[in-house]
Amino acid sequence: MRLRLETGVICALLVFLAFGSAAAQAPGYRDVDLGARRSGEIFTLKLGAQNANCGQPIDFRFNSKSNWLRLPADPVVRQVPAGQTKYLDATIDLSGAAPGPKIGFIDID
User: Fold this and answer.
1) CA atoms within 13 A on the CB side of 89
2) What is the pLDDT of residues 38-72, one digit of tens each?
3) Number of structural domains, the chain?
4) Which DSSP string do the residues of the chain spell out, in sequence order?
5) Residue range(s) defining the domain that contains residue 29
6) What is the CATH number of the domain that holds 39?
């Protein structure tokens, strides 16, 4: 399973996933391999937004149009101070998904 994060750079924005590591990087996105997951199951995905060096707190809005990748009703990590990371819990819901590879996208504004 792969997840592609579409990112813009705002004061050195860094986005982390609680599991999985970057498989490949290119300007504008990061591919993250989430490994094998079984159809019919639900998993938690922790997304993190880090304000690496911007001197003021920053808000990060996560967006996804993938029907199996669900964000909370309020998908915003608010007021992340410089040098800190805050997290947002998303859900990978494969309960209605057919077996096979999935590709999802998360945009960060």
Assistant:
1) 4
2) 777 888 888 888 898 889 999 999 999 888 889 99
3) 1
4) -EEEEEE--SSSEEEEESS-EEEEEETTEEEEE-----TT-EEEEEEEEEE-S-SS-EEEEEE---TTEE--SS-EEEEE-TTEEEEEEEEEE-TTPPSS--EEEEEE-
5) 2-108
6) 2.60.40
Q: Tell me: the pLDDT tens digits for 82-108?
A: 999 999 999 988 887 777 777 888 888
HSE at residue 81, side-chain half, CA atoms within 13 A, is 1
Contact 23, 33 (CB under 8 A): yes
Burial class (CB in 10 A: 0-12, 13-18, 19+), 26: exposed
pTM, two decimal places: 0.69
Tokens in use for 14?
């860094």
